[in-house]
């Protein structure tokens, strides 16, 4: 019998994502305090730009967490770190230079966590790479922020130690370093929005589903098949339910085949439940998966051909982003409910 298991590796990555979100909120809080305390116009402008990026990137991290689809709490050690840094930033024991120094260390930690998640995804599964793809932009921007903070630290440090201004070519060197990073990152760090459109989010879900189907059909080890199907089961259930709550009611006035789309979604849901009790090593299992993939792909093709056009032609960019926000919110709530249900079932089984 296939269960919707959460592989330990996937849970570990989910915890790292939760850590990233907590640190991102901390970085934003710190920058808001620095801007209030800083009297230097040049430094304040750079901090304001950094704050705008970090607020935008908080939305990107939220997107990656929802697309990943495995809820988790942050580590206790991360929570303690956040609380300790908050006390330091609120207090008067540290100078502004020392506080910004701590911020640069946090930026380094955030950058390395994002890169670690990316590298772990390459090892654990291609579907994870598809889910956390938005983090690449965050990782590159955090590296650029580190270069900016090094420049801020030089200014504040020289002033604190000597009472004089640092070498005037400092900011030019910082800009060269950021430009070099931008060249490596390409257009990835030129985003202006913290929210994708609903079409972008749906397309990401579709790509992840295609990847999971390929992983299931390409795997021979029953445990790996169970792991991949467990993720596919949760993803398709949550995706379909969120579409029925957010997407389909919105497009109904513009699409005469909306009822057909509802029926396709219900069919996929039923097929998932038919596959769930089967043994992953059985020939019947992969035959059913092929049928499920065909039904899912037919639904995706109709959605991307018809519904995406309807969304593009009838909803403004702002409305599409608002729909994406609602879609993410519903997905997150459904993921939490599914995680709670799985936990209750597991505890009941352990008590027998």
Descriptive notes:
- The protein is mainly α.
- It folds into two domains: 8-189, Up-down Bundle (Ferritin), CATH 1.20.1260; 198-351, no CATH class.
- Helices cover 82% and strands 0% of the residues.
- The protein contains twelve helices and no strands.
- The chain has helices spanning 8-37, 41-68, 76-90, 96-124, 126-131, 135-162, 170-185, 198-218, 222-251, 258-275, 283-314, 317-351.
- Helix 8 runs antiparallel to helix 11 (283-314).
- It is elongated.
What percent of the residues sit in helical stretches (DSSP H or I)?
A: over 70%
One letter per element, helices H and strands E, the order comes to HHHHHHHHHHHH
Mean pLDDT: 87
Strand content: under 5%
The secondary-structure class comes to mainly alpha
> Could you give the count of β-strands?
0
Radius of gyration: 23 Å
- CATH class value of the largest domain: Mainly Alpha
**Low-pLDDT runs:** 1-6, 184-192
At CATH's second level, what is the architecture of the largest domain? Up-down Bundle
Overall domain count: 2
Kindly report the CATH topology of the largest domain. Ferritin
The N- and C-terminal alpha carbons lie at a distance of: 18 Å
Helical element count? 12
Q: Any idea what the shape is?
A: elongated
Could you describe the largest sheet, including whether it forms a barrel? none
């Amino acid at each position: 019998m296939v269960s919707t298991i959460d592989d330990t590796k996937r849970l570990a990555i989910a915890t790292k994502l939760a850590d990233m979100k907590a640190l991102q909120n901390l970085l934003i809080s710190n920058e808001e305090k620095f801007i209030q305390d800083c009297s230097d116009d040049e430094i304040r402008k750079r901090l304001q730009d950094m704050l705008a990026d970090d607020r935008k990137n908080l939305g990107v991290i939220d997107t990656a967490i929802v697309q990943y689809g495995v809820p988790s709490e942050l580590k206790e050690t991360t929570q303690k770190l956040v609380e300790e840094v908050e006390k330091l930033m609120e207090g008067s024991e540290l100078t502004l230079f020392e506080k910004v120094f701590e911020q640069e260390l946090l930026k380094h930690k955030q950058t390395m966590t994002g890169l670690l998640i990316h590298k772990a995804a390459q090892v654990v599964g291609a579907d994870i790479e598809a889910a956390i793809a938005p983090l690449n932009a965050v990782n590159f921007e955090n590296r650029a922020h580190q270069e900016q903070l090094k420049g801020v630290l030089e200014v504040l440090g020289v002033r604190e130690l000597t009472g004089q201004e640092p070498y005037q070519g400092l900011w030019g060197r910082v800009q060269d370093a950021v430009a070099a990073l931008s060249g490596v990152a390409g257009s990835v760090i030129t985003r202006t929005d913290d929210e994708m459109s609903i079409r972008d989010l749906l397309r990401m879900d579709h790509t992840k589903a295609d990847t999971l189907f390929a992983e299931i059909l390409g795997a021979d080890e029953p445990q790996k098949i169970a792991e991949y199907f467990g993720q596919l089961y949760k993803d398709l259930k949550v995706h379909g339910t969120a579409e029925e709550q957010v997407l389909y009611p919105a497009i109904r006035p513009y699409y005469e085949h909306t009822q057909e789309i509802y029926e396709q979604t219900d069919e996929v849901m039923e097929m998932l439940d038919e596959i769930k009790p089967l043994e992953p090593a059985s020939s019947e299992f992969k035959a059913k998966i092929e049928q499920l993939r065909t039904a899912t792909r037919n639904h995706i093709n109709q959605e991307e051909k018809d519904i995406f056009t309807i969304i593009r032609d009838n909803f403004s960019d702002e409305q599409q982003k608002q729909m994406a926000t609602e879609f993410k919110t519903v997905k997150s709530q459904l993921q939490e409910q599914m995680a709670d249900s799985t936990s209750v079932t597991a505890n009941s089984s352990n008590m027998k």
